[in-house]
Amino acid sequence: MPATPQLLDLAALGTIGGMTLATTAVTNGLWRSLGWQPRWLGLMVSLVICLATAFFAGNTAGADLFLAVLNAFIVYLAAAGTSGAGAAIQGGDVPTPANEGRELPGMEEEPSERQFLRSWF
Fold first, then answer.
1. I want to staple 72 with a disulfide (CB 3.0 to 4.6 A). Which of 50, 52, 81, 116 is the partner?
2. What is the block-wise mean pLDDT of the chain (121 residues), using blocks of 10 residues?
């Protein structure tokens, strides 16, 4: 029986592009389905993905884990930019960066009304 093709495998996930894709997809999927705040969720998802990638690669030394955390912030910002750019292309409402403690636009919407891509900030 032939192997089924994979959209994302471990080799692809080990790249910055693969980690960014996974972070964007997981964060936006959880926001779309459960309404979880993507600003903080995206950072947690990127940290988990980058640290897990380092562990699976056998890079568990202190310096390697430090670099994995730095990479997580790069992946997080790339994923947030990807989502924000996608929202702008879709014509989505882009909130102002300084929201002065108010809830972000779209958080009171029902899941069916949410766009998949939106600005995380």
1. 50
2. 69 86 91 84 94 87 91 94 83 52 52 61 60
